[in-house]
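Posting this for the archive.
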Amino acid sequence: MGGARYDAVVAILCGVFQAGAYLDLWAHVHQPELETFFTPWHAVLYSGFFALAGVTMVPLLRRRSGRGWAGALAPGYDLSAVGVLIFLLGGVLDMLWHIVFGIEVDVEALLSPSHLVLALGSTLMLTGPLRSAWRRAGQTRAPWPAVMSLAYLLSAFSFWTQYVHQLGRPWPAAGNQPTAATFPVVAPDPLFRNAEIQSLYVAHALGVASILLQAALLSAVVLLAVRRWEAFPRGAFTMVFGLNALMVGLARDQLLLVVPAVVAGALADALIAGLRPSVERSAALRTVAFAVPAVYFALFFLTLALTRGVWWTASLWSGTVVLAGASGWLLSWVLAPPAVPTVHSRH
């Protein structure tokens, strides 16, 4: 069991599983009163889960006598099996959590401990093809199942941080400009300049925070891939960025903003193919690390400006684009830090 064909099958089932999660998100966004478990999107979600769990765990049932449990699994899928067990545990904990504390709503639904257990389990399962390809010695070109798994990893991050995601709510869009001067609260703490919280401050802060967080996550996924492989199939990052934006965009009615993500992915493909970034080629690595998120969000702002209008000032949106690039650039130093001088170094 294992190999490229096995990875491809698992990658397809991962796509069904994650698509079910995003369909369920779409349903809760558009039907907030929805409370029943028996829905078409739950059918997709749990069909995907049980199919994926079955393909992951079947090798354990077919293991030869005397062979260890871990050795029976395909390389890279040991953590996937752990993920299956964690996800099942999360389901039980979630039921108990609801009984004790009730049903979560809005942001708290993404942060409850039981849901975070589900997040961990599902992410371990979704990244099985990535770990499998990573462990394959001598492979310098990323296979498609691993690329698909990268897209699922990025989309898992997006799902669990959708409350600070530029497609969850594009704050710079003209329609999201606050009309009230202040953001009413019980008692402003601290009472800054002897005034209440300004609505513009809240909208600016949430918008910038969402872009910077997602820029860091996007860059981390790109740099992770570049760290392992020297080359990628044509259109790899176009697919990663596009599939991620499509999932979030469908759930949050932001399909128009899928277009700049696809274009940014195509430009990332061209940059990576042309510059060939690596730990050894640190200048190229840092250029790509800065350019990919900066271009991604520059295109995001451009699309908003051409379609809905941008109410942010030039200082705000341009500075945010630069900081998005800086997020990736800083991560490149974690991936490839400068050499540490030794006691024998003269310079």
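DSSP finds 13 helices and no strands in the chain. The two ends are 53 Å apart (CA to CA).
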